[in-house]
């Protein structure tokens, strides 16, 4: 196991996965240095305080804000700051990324590939680095069909720049010569117990459009698997894998496994929960060539915008791939870390989404818990100074 006396450096602490991982590290009493995009440590500290309040992080650990930027040379740090940061930490969890599906490939690479390269450079300067844990995505497999195994590096055609850039970043991690672990979540949604989420993309965008009546027709296969996992499972798994001695040089699918639902099953749950008529499912090729051009001419401007924003997610509704989880189950299930069938918590996801107005009214975990009558520890830890980790202003 890792030396718990040496701090962990976490990137992406203001993102959905990162902030939830941070809460678990603090609950374990760890000291976590969080690289946060900001002009200075004071601004980074303020952003980190807001994150801790939103996730209701426990006061058992210690969080330190460090201003930096994975898209800048040496992470936006001075040479002395870069060296000082490397000297203080023992391991790294790198979850910072652009999750946009429609960025031009060079922009996606600048964040997801070159940002990872810079984090690996920092990791190489850490004495006796214990682990570099990289949070990737199961969809680095692209559109290949059949079963995708955890040690597979063969991919099909990429559906978007996000998949391609994460695939390329994984290759850098494997070639680094460092003690690495790759975690590959699938589609991440809110907590099982409360429904809370800080991110309303991927599954939520089409569900919102469906609830607004924007989808009389959807390009999808009824039996296509829709692999959805809750954030609490993903965060628990990332933290556990980052410390597990048997996870070194291993890639792990954090996916639903045998609990994966189909598009048809999710569609039935959705129309019932959103009080809508079920849309007609048509093959993607027919939708692109015939249905979509007709729809955009006939719908209102607001409905057209919903269709356009959610179109990047349509390719995930017609997949023909399943993710093997043998390796992750072997390591995680003995620790009680496992996904659950989506029908067990889908109602809570929808209840929270409606209460949060699909992200337009941000709610923290305490408010989410109140919605479903669950008691949470709402105390948040006081942040401490960055102990000389001041960075050069981020450009």
Textual characterization of the structure:
With 395 residues, this protein is of the alpha/beta class. It has one domain: NAD(P)-binding Rossmann-like Domain (Rossmann fold). The protein has 13 helices and 15 strands. It has helices spanning 16-27, 41-55, 79-88, 105-124, 161-174, 204-211, 231-243, 263-274, 284-298, 301-310, 326-332, 346-355, 365-372; strands at residues 8-11, 31-36, 62-67, 91-94, 131-135, 146-148, 180-185, 187-189, 217-219, 225-226, 228-230, 250-254, 261-262, 280-282, 321-323. The strands form five sheets. The chain has a seven-stranded parallel sheet, sandwiched between helices. Strand 4 (91-94), helix 4 and strand 5 (131-135) form a beta-alpha-beta unit. The longest helix has 20 residues, at 105-124. The chain is globular and about 60 Å long. It starts with 7 loop residues before the first strand and ends in a 23-residue tail after the last helix. Mean pLDDT is 91; it is low at 378-395.
Question: Residue-averaged pLDDT, rounded?
Answer: 91
Residue fraction in strands: 5-15%
Largest sheet: 7 strands, parallel
Evaluate the radius of gyration: 21 Å
CATH architecture: 3-Layer(aba) Sandwich
Distance between the ends: 38 Å
Uncertain runs: 378-395
CATH class equals: Alpha Beta
CATH fold field value = Rossmann fold
How would you spell out the order of helices and strands? Answer: EHEHEHEHEEHEEHEEEHEEHEHHEHHH
Strand order in space, largest sheet: 3-2-1-4-5-7-12
Q: If helices are DSSP runs of H or I spanning 4 or more residues, what is the number of helices?
A: 13
Characterize the overall form. globular
Indicate how many domains the architecture comprises: 1
| Extended strand count | 15
Measured as a percent range, the helix fraction is 25-40%
Computed structural class: alpha/beta
CATH superfamily: NAD(P)-binding Rossmann-like Domain
């Amino acid at each position: 196991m890792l030396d718990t006396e040496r701090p962990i450096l976490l990137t992406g602490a203001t993102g959905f996965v990162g902030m939830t991982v941070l809460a678990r590290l603090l609950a374990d009493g760890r000291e976590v240095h969080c690289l946060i995009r900001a002009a200075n440590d004071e601004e980074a500290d303020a952003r980190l305080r807001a994150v801790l309040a939103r996730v209701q992080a426990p006061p058992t650990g210690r969080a330190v804000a460090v201003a930096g930027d994975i898209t800048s040379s040496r992470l936006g740090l001075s040479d002395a700051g870069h060296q000082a940061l490397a000297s203080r930490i023992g391991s790294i969890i790198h979850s910072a990324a652009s999750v946009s599906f429609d960025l031009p490939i060079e922009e996606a690479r600048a964040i997801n590939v070159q940002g990872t390269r810079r984090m690996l450079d920092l990791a190489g300067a850490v004495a006796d680095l214990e682990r570099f844990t990289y949070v990737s995505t199961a969809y680095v497999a692209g559109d290949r069909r059949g079963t995708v195994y955890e040690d597979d590096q063969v991919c099909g055609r990429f559906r978007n720049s996000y998949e391609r850039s994460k695939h390329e970043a994984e290759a850098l991690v494997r070639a680094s010569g460092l003690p690495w672990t790759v975690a590959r979540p699938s589609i991440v949604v809110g907590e099982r117990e409360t429904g809370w989420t800080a991110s309303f993309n991927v599954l939520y965008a089409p569900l919102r459009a469906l609830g607004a009546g924007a989808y009389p027709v959807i390009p999808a296969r009824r039996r296509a698997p829709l692999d959805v996992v809750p954030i609490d499972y993903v965060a628990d798994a990332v933290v556990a894998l980052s410390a597990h001695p048997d996870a070194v040089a291993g890639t792990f699918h954090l996916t639903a496994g045998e609990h994966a639902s189909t598009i048809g099953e999710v569609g039935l749950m959705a129309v019932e929960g959103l009080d809508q008529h079920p849309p007609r499912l048509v093959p993607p090729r027919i939708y692109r060539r015939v249905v979509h051009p007709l729809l955009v001419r006939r719908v209102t401007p607001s409905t057209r915008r919903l269709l356009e924003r959610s179109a990047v997610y349509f390719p995930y509704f017609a997949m023909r791939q399943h993710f093997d989880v043998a390796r992750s189950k072997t390591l995680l299930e003995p620790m009680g870390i496992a996904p659950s069938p989506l029908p067990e918590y889908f109602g809570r996801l929808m209840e929270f989404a409606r209460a949060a107005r699909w992200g337009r009214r941000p709610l923290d975990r305490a408010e989410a818990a109140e919605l479903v009558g669950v008691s949470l520890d709402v105390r948040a830890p006081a942040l401490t100074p960055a102990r000389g980790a001041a960075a050069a202003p981020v450009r």
